[in-house]
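FAQ: What does a multi-protein file look like?

Like this. Sequence, then tokens, then the next protein.
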Amino acid sequence: MHVKKPTNSEDPQRDDMKKKTSCFSNIKIFLVAECALMMAQGTVGAYLVSVLTTLERRFNLQSADVGVIASSFEIGNLAFILFVSYFGAKAHRPRLIGCGGIIMALGALLSALPEFLASQYKIIDSWSKDLGRDVCSNTSKVDELCGNRANTNMMYLLLIGAQVLLGIGATPVQPLGVSYIDDHVRKKDSSLYI
């Protein structure tokens, strides 16, 4: 027979706190997750910079197009930073950072998608000898070599959208993460955590 202990009616908040406590409601766990998100953001950004010339050659993009792809991250970030900074102080900051991480993951998957959707490389001798760099602007052999120009434009738009999503997802990570850490650690430990 199990006897139920009487509850103390003077301390209902303490009982509620015991129920809501989880292993994830720890500032150190939050710090690890924040560092992982910042590392993922930096890794994806560094990877994009390293493959810009490859994207330019593979999809026959101009340098201006590659610059638009690279700056799309900042465009997405700038579009949302005011809203996130203002409304983020009033909302549940770890949830907003988690949603940003999910959006960043979606943007990273979309930025990898052109490698899987595009056809494999085909080396053509006449590419470098007869026709020059921009094959599709040349009038000879246009039907043969430029059949996938629409495919290139779709990949270009896909890469821009992926970078915008990465920028939107990265928006809450830095400002909300730093303020959350600053609010939930002791004053003397704040600089160490940040």
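And here is the next protein:
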Amino acid sequence: VLENPDLQASIKPQKVEFRSLNFNSTLHWQPGRAREARDTVYFVQYKVYGQSTWQNKDDCWGIQNHVCDLTNETSDIQEPYYGRVKAASAGVYSDWSLSCRFTPWRETMIGPPMVTVVHSNKSIILKLQAPRSPYKRKRGSKIPMTNYYDLLYQVFIINNLLDEQHRVLVYEGKDKVIKIEDLRPGVSYCIVAKTYVPMLDRSSAYSSRQCTVL
């Protein structure tokens, strides 16, 4: 078989990286320098750091996508993993492109809590629910992220009279039900919340805003 080294180099996948939210972990890459030929397909392998053999990911063998879900393959969240991808086009195979080392527990991004607002006359009562991981308990329910981390909730209030961007931290802690008191009737308030992991000094994005007028 005649190798075509130019084609081989130009189809090699670029920027192979893991992205992970609440342990939903996917491997992403970009096509090589060549304008991607229609028939370019990709092959994905993964392994635990320190192992000598790479495992094929069957669902991502000869695919046209630039993403591969490795959530189940990286479920031992304290272990470091690698992923790698190669491309094939017109019968020519590129070399493998390797990701950086990925340790789910250290690197997954944690999502914001779910916030439900129940209001009484001069106060707002919030119910917070931790984001869930993709991993399930024996009975089938998904395990919350609080099982894996010491999480704090940060709750911010936005007084719409004052300023859209002016968020005031009104609570930080572990309670799932929070009461915000001494609010003015007739004023529109919005609540957003974040999940914070002190050990990693990492915050989630803000939750979607929940607004209410007392």
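Q: Is there any per-entry metadata?
A: Some entries carry free-text notes. For the entry above: The chain has two domains: 5-106, 114-213.
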